Amino acid sequence: MLALSSAAFAAIATASAQNAPPVASNAANASGNPLAAMPFGAANDKPVSKWTPPASAGRQLTLNDMLTWKGIRSPALSNDGKWFAYTIAPNEGDADVVIRPTSAGGKEWRFPVGDATGGGGRGGAGGVGISGNNKWAAFLVNPSGAAAGRGGRGGRGG
User: Alpha carbon of 156 to those of 62, 79, 147, 148: distances in Å?
Assistant: First the structure.
């Protein structure tokens, strides 16, 4: 680990500040702090990189967008690297388990697994597991969000 003394750090900061382009004078520069004169932002409004996409005038996110937004949870890769499995689920609502090959053009399987917030026992929801020989996948299936809201014991009341 490299440790700089405060004098060495101040000398480096002062040298950097002397090579920096001039910035507008403000109260921070008048404080005597050599780091205050260093530019920390972009010098202009040009993209930082030629690969930075231009800002779009797209639409704003709405509450409905946030409620239906889906995320990938508990990804798993098979031992031989030929299969990838994950759970795709919204913040609230029913989820799907997706199992797909890592090679191009293979068939993707989707399995509805019910409410994503359902518990998985003592350790929580377990996600997807792929067997050691890469021929089997295991995952928990919970009641759907609509059925889970009707009461305990699978909607039979009680």
Answer: 36, 41, 10, 10
